[in-house]
């Protein structure tokens, strides 16, 4: 007969063992009720027998985010929390959450004699215990652990406890311990850890210890999945080899490109700064402009010159970046050049039109703004139309004719209607069913 969902088998079969990951994920969401349910399920496991089930539960706890241990520790202090049995690692870990300090102290002594990430994570958690004796025993037992997987488990928990006053300088002390030669392998394991906080900790420590080769620094700065790790490695690479700035300008991460632009030599030719000046990220454009300001060259002149040279073969992203950059540092005299990008007889790509509209909205005199941008209220690109109404609402809300306001209120795009509603006078038309579903009536 088929077993009912959630009923534990007598011999720890895989039907229920496979659900511990699901229950741990639910409890790790942060809801106190889910953590209490998981704690009750763990405590209900028989102390003797069902070894497969206890092993599956311990494996799920070990693989779960470290936040789950903190949630279970809090749930165990609620009135009526169940007490766990068993002398294995799972039983000791659960008893280390107990409200009674003597029970926790005995559990810490038991965990000190056990190996594995789960035992070490329990010891790290008790390093923030409110009882001095428990805290001291856990701290002493933790500092002698050197196995890479145990160090990683400890760091994950200690990082979550770093802001608690009872831990003191334990994280710094543990970090200093990892700087020793016997722990270099553990540092390399931290660099590849799946936990984001632990991995950032490991990368920073590895950089301090010189564990990265220069090729690894470049590869991490360009391709790593975490922005903090990319930035750390890019900065270290530029400190060692400033000539690598040119390669880092090709990075997908704007923060890395910003560091690369700042590391360029002061006498770098202005032509080499064209791409950073037209970068899609504003902070990269700002850094590139400061390079020119620092040597007395106005960046607006570079923008004007490059826009004057632009033709049909100019990349769309470069043209849009030049328009956006000129809008950030130009003046009213640049409006005619920007309006040429908005000529409806030779429509520029949508990305270029959006940047040009935004630039005109910043630079055009207030009295001319409606005359320049009003005819673009019916632009077929929703992004460009949204920029039109955003600029009018920000700088000339009282001068916008009711006809233009009405156009904005009846546009099918919700973002455009919201921008037009900020001008005032005409309320946006409610969205119909076809607009909410993303389909057009045409």
Automatic annotation (TrEMBL):
InterPro entries hit by this protein: ARM-like, ARM-type_fold
Protein name as annotated: Cellulose synthase operon protein C
Source organism of the structure: Actinacidiphila bryophytorum
């Amino acid at each position: 007969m088929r077993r009912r969902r959630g009923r534990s088998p007598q011999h720890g079969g895989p039907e229920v063992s496979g659900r511990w990951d699901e229950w741990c994920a639910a409890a790790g969401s942060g809801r106190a009720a889910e953590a209490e349910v998981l704690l009750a399920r763990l405590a209900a496991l028989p102390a003797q027998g069902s070894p497969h089930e206890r092993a599956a539960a311990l494996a799920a706890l070990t693989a779960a985010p470290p936040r789950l241990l903190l949630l279970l520790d809090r749930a165990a202090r609620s009135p009526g929390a169940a007490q766990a049995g068993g002398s294995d690692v799972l039983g000791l870990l659960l008893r280390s959450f107990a409200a009674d300090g003597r029970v926790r102290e005995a559990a810490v002594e038991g965990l000190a004699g056990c190996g594995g990430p789960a035992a070490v994570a329990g010891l790290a958690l008790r390093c923030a215990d409110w009882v001095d004796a428990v805290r001291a025993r856990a701290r002493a037992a933790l500092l002698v652990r050197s196995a890479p997987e145990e160090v990683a488990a400890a760091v994950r928990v200690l990082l979550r406890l770093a802001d608690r006053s009872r831990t003191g300088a334990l994280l710094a002390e543990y970090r200093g311990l990892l700087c020793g030669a016997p722990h270099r392998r553990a540092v390399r394991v931290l660099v590849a850890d799946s936990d984001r906080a632990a991995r950032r900790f490991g990368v920073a420590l590895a950089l301090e210890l010189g564990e990265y080769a220069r090729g690894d620094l470049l590869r991490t700065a360009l391709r790593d999945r975490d922005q903090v790790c990319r930035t750390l490695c890019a900065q270290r690479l530029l400190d060692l080899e400033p000539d690598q700035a040119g390669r880092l300008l090709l990075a997908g991460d704007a923060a890395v490109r910003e560091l690369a632009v700042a590391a360029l030599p002061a006498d770098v030719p202005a032509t080499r700064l064209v791409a950073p000046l037209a970068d899609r990220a504003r902070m990269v454009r700002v850094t590139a402009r400061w390079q020119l300001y620092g040597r007395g060259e106005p960046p607006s002149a570079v923008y004007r010159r490059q826009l004057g040279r632009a033709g049909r073969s100019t990349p769309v992203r470069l043209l849009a970046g030049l328009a956006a950059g000129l809008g950030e540092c130009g003046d009213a005299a640049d409006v005619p050049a920007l309006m040429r990008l908005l000529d409806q007889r030779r429509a520029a790509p949508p990305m270029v039109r959006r940047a040009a509209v935004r630039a005109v909205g910043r630079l055009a005199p207030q009295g001319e703004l409606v005359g320049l941008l009003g005819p673009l209220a019916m632009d077929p690109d929703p992004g460009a139309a949204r920029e039109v109404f955003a600029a009018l609402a920000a700088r000339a809300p009282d001068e916008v004719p009711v006809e233009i306001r009405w156009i904005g209120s009846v546009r099918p795009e919700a973002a455009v209607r919201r921008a037009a509603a900020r001008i005032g006078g005409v309320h946006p038309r409610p969205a119909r069913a076809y607009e909410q579903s993303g389909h057009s009536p045409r």
